[in-house]
């Protein structure tokens, strides 16, 4: 069997062209489309040439969504007469719904059955 020479995917001229285009500000997708190669192939070639700079990923802003789960569980513990340790796996929305329900039940109970102060019967 005769050994065949491997043909390079990128000629020196093509490599120089994609590096020049990339440094001129063209995005990788446009370069890949122009030369008929995949975006991944062009990106890999630019990395090997040492010119590719990965786009910065946007930094997630911290969400300020009210109280933490621990704070909500402390509030639930004050409202309920049971141990809330088992609720650690619950979502904040579920804990909030339970707190709202207990508050409503407490308000309805107070409105339906007001507690009258005991009078001193000895008097």
Provide a concise account of the structure shown.
The protein is mainly α and 123 residues long.
Low-pLDDT segments, ≥5 res? none
Give the number of DSSP strands. Answer: 0
Structural class: mainly alpha
> N-to-C terminal Cα separation, in Å?
120 Å
Residues in helices, as a percent range: 40-55%
Shape: rod-shaped
Q: Could you report the average pLDDT, rounded to the nearest whole number? A: 82
As a percent range, the share of strand residues is under 5%
Radius of gyration: 34 Å
Main sheet specs: none
Q: So how many helices?
A: 5
What does this structure look like?
This protein has five helices and no strands. With 123 residues, the protein is an all-alpha fold. Helix 1 crosses helix 3 (39-49), helix 2 packs across helix 3 and helix 4 (69-79) runs parallel beside helix 5. The mean pLDDT is 82.
Note the main attributes of this structure.
123 residues; mainly alpha; single chain
Helices and strands in order:
Elements: H1 12-23, H2 28-35, H3 39-49, H4 69-79, H5 92-112
Helix pairs in contact: 1-3, 2-3, 4-5
